[in-house]
Amino acid sequence: MRILLVEDEENLRDVIKLNLEMEGYEVVAAGTGRQALKFHSEQHFDLLVLDVMLPELDGFQICEQIRLTDMEVPIIFLTAKDTALDRITGLK
Question: How many domains does the chain have?
């Protein structure tokens, strides 16, 4: 299974990537939304893990862009946000 991990905090990105790889997953890591969109357009992924709070493009914006061409890939959001509006936005 190939996973695209999008997290701007390098230490957290490295820890998540390492743990997923230890479980046998192939992980491609991106630090920005633009990099994530580039990787997604060039490669196939079975799962996307998106941080919500990113510079330039946030995780919700990345999801919206990807959903224009790929309605099938599952997406998991990583977030420290806890408002009802944030949860609703993630479910859309």
Answer: 1
Q: Indicate the pTM of the whole model.
A: 0.87
Question: Is 51 exposed, middle or buried (CB count within 10 Å of its CB: 0-12, 13-18, 19+)?
Answer: buried
CA–CA separation, 73 and 77 (whole Å):
13
Residue range 26-31: mean pLDDT, rounded: 98
pLDDT digit string (tens) for 50-71? 999 898 899 999 999 999 999 9
CATH of residue 75: 3.40.50.2300
Amino acid at position 8, single letter: D
Burial class (CB in 10 A: 0-12, 13-18, 19+), 62: buried
